[in-house]
Amino acid sequence: MIDEIVKAYRLDQKMTLRDFAAALSIDGQTISYEAIRKWENGRFKPNYYFLVALSMKTTDWRRDFAFDCLSAIEPDNFVPVSDIGRSAIRGD
Does domain 2-90 have CATH number 1.10.260? Predict the structure, then answer.
């Protein structure tokens, strides 16, 4: 699920792996394009605390991205907020 969410958001924003990583880097915490690639490949998932911070410090698509990822990680505590997240959770 996370892999689908990451890739869908990156493509929706029309960003390269590097651009997407730079857009997600906040408060001195940099995300590498290699990390984005691993998230998209399903090898790793974003850090829970990073996603919480991202959801609290942004008000644009990055907030939605964070909540959609959190809903995939902890579905009992979070709900998807975008069509991308809802589609990934449903398995469309």
Answer: yes
Helices (H) and strands (E) in the chain, counts: 6, 0
Annotate 17-67 with DSSP letters as a single string: HHHHHHHH-BTTB---HHHHHHHHHTS----HHHHHHHHHH--SHHHHHHH
CA distance 76 to 15: 31
HSE on the CB side for 37, CA within 13 Å?
6
Q: Is the pTM of this model over 0.90?
A: yes
Q: Residue 15's pLDDT is what? A: 98
